[in-house]
Amino acid sequence: MFAYVVRRLIAAIPVLIIASFLAYALVALSGDPLEPLKLRNPPAPPRTIELETQRLGLDDNIFARYGHWLWGVLHGNFGESVQSSYDIGANLARSSVVTLRLVFVAMLLALVLAVLTGVLSAVRQYSKFDYTTTFLGFVFLAMPSFWIAIVLKDFAVRYNKATGTTVFYTIGETSQNYENLSAFGKFADVAGHLVLPTISLALISYAAWSRYQRAAMLEVLNSDYVRLARAKGLTWRKVLVKHVLRTALIPLVTVTALDIAAILGGAVITETVFNWNGLGRMLLTGVSRADTNAVAGWLLLAGLVVIAFNVIADVLYAVLDPRIRHD
C-alpha cells in the first residue's frame, strides 16, 4: 500500500506541473498587472513602470517567468506580488487555514448527513421519510450555493435583531476581539462563525451525495450475496453494517474525491457572502489585479488538495473492500 501511494504521488507531479503552467499562462496572458499605473491620472512615470516591470519579471517570456516562479516555490518563495508589501506565501498559509477549516467541516457534515439519510431512505424505500429526503435533496440541488448563503445570512440577521443578541455570526471568520479571548473563547468564537458558512457549503454536497448513497445501498441490498448472508442466519444489523454499508460506501468515496474541486469553488462563493478573509478573497483579489504569482499559488494549493483527496480515496477503496489490493 505504501509503495502504491508513493507511485501515485510521483505520477501526480507531472500532472501538477502541467496544470500549474496552464493556469499560470492563462492568468499571465489575461491582463496587464501594471495597467492601473499606466491608466491613472496623471500616469506613473516611465521609470516607475520600468522598475515594476523588472520587479515582476514581465520583461521575460512566459516560460522563463513560470520557470523562475516554480523554482522559487520549491524553495518556499511564491514570487513577487503586484502589491510590493504583499507576502504571497504568508498570506497563502494563513488563508488556507481559514478556508480548509471550512471545507473539511462542511464535508464532514455533508458526509454524515448523506450516509445517514441515504441508508435510511434505502432501508425504508418508498416510506414518508424516503419521499421527504428525496424532495429536500432535489430542492437543495436546485438552489445555487450563493443563494443558500444569502438566505441563511438574511435569516440570521433578522433573528439576531429580533432576539437582541448575536446568536448567529454573519460577518468574518472571527470576531474583532479574537486575540483577546481565552483558549476556549477562541474555539467558541471560531465555531460560532463556522455555523452558517458550513451549513451553506454542506447542503448542496449533502443533497447530491445522499442520492448516490441511497442508490448504492439499494443496489447492494438487492444483490445475491446479501440474500445468501440472510439465508445463512446472519442478523439484519450485521448484514447491513458489515456487508451492505461497506460496499455501498465505495461510490460515495469516489464522488467525494471528485467533488473536492467543486467544493473549493463553492467555498470561494461562501466566503465572499460571509466576508471571510480566506482563499476566496485571495483568489478574487489576485484575478482582479492580474496578480499571476498569487493566483498560481492558489491554484497550486488547490491542485495539491485535489490530488491528496484522490489518493486518500484509493486507500479507502482497499479498506472498504478487501478484494481491492494496491500491490
TrEMBL record:
UniProt superkingdom:
Bacteria
Q: InterPro entries, per this entry?
A: BPD_transp_1_N (IPR045621), MetI-like (IPR000515), MetI-like_sf (IPR035906)
What membrane topology is annotated for this entry? Multi-pass membrane protein
One GO BP annotation here? transmembrane transport
Q: A Pfam family name for this chain?
A: BPD_transp_1_N
Under the cellular component aspect of Gene Ontology, which terms does the record hold? plasma membrane
Q: Where are the transmembrane segments?
A: 9-29, 102-123, 135-152, 190-209, 248-274, 294-320
Please verify whether the record's keywords include Transmembrane helix.
yes
Annotated ABC transmembrane type-1 domain residues: 96-317
**Localisation:** Cell membrane
Q: Which SUPFAM superfamilies match?
A: MetI-like (SSF161098)
**What's the chief localization of this chain?**
membrane
- Decide whether keyword Mitochondrion is in the record: no
Keywords for the protein's UniProt record, in alphabetical order? Cell membrane, Membrane, Transmembrane, Transmembrane helix, Transport
- PANTHER family xrefs: DIPEPTIDE TRANSPORT SYSTEM PERMEASE PROTEIN DPPB-RELATED
The UniProt entry's sequence similarity note says: Belongs to the binding-protein-dependent transport system permease family.
Identification of the protein by name:
Peptide ABC transporter permease
Q: Which organism is it from?
A: Paractinoplanes toevensis
